[in-house]
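User: My notes are a mess, but here's the protein and coenzyme A's SMILES. Can you give me a structure?
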Amino acid sequence: MELRFRKAAAHRLSRRFCFGSGVYVVGAGSNDGAEALAAFILELHYQGKPGRKTGMKSIAFSGLIVRPFQPGDADAIMEITKAAWDGVTMAELREKQLGLVEGKPWREHKAGSVLAQCQRRPDWALVGLVNGEIIGYATMSLSPGGEIGTVGNNAVHPRWQGRGIGTALIGEVVRRLEAAGVRLLEVATLKEDAAAQRVYEKLGFQEVTRTLHYSRRPLAGESGVTPV
Ligand SMILES: CC(C)(COP(=O)(O)OP(=O)(O)OC[C@H]1O[C@@H](n2cnc3c(N)ncnc32)[C@H](O)[C@@H]1OP(=O)(O)O)[C@@H](O)C(=O)NCCC(=O)NCCS
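Assistant: No problem, the inputs look usable. Here's the predicted complex:
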């Protein structure tokens, strides 16, 4: 099913997309003492409850078509992912700290994982088109019991960012999760990703906590356990 955003409809949709508060703690992180080899990344977690309004601005874009992922969209998903995610993926931060992983640049890792997610559940992946060109995507998932809906990977091609398209796409994901009956909505992002934080807050999510991510290469003979 296709969904067409027109200017007038955008105002109505923007109201529908809003959902509201839950009360959650803001945690802080520090990288004091992190090992030279350790990658140290903060991730923010947001939650929202369906059904309540926020003061979100209306969508400032018309002419966007949103539909589920199709097999022929694979190249566009890969291209957008490679173009959009600079500075805001774990894969890039990890590569900066530790070097290439599995011999592949971070863009390949990220594009591969987004595409795999779309192909695994095409019905949980939406693409946004303008004049027939795919310019963004947003994915979602449901907990086994259907109570928690999670906003997954999402991106808008840099040429199209800053025009309300990310908010519209993720708003449509939220609408579909709400229609599926979820009682809680969640999303996680990195502290580096100010644009994503803004979008989630515009859509009524509130920060729950911050997670620290560590990683390192194996160190020779470190276990202290003598093999038997
Ligand atoms: C996140 C993303 C999808 C948003 O798409 P978009 O089409 O630009 O989103 P919108 O135009 O609807 O909204 C972006 C908002 O972020 C704000 N923003 C952008 N860069 C910002 C920054 N560095 N600091 C603070 N706010 C910023 C914009 O001003 C806008 O807010 P406004 O409407 O109040 O002015 C896009 O930036 C993207 O593809 N990022 C790379 C992938 C990514 O990080 N995905 C999220 C993973 S959790």
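The two ends are 61 Å apart (CA to CA).
User: Great, I'll file this with my notes.
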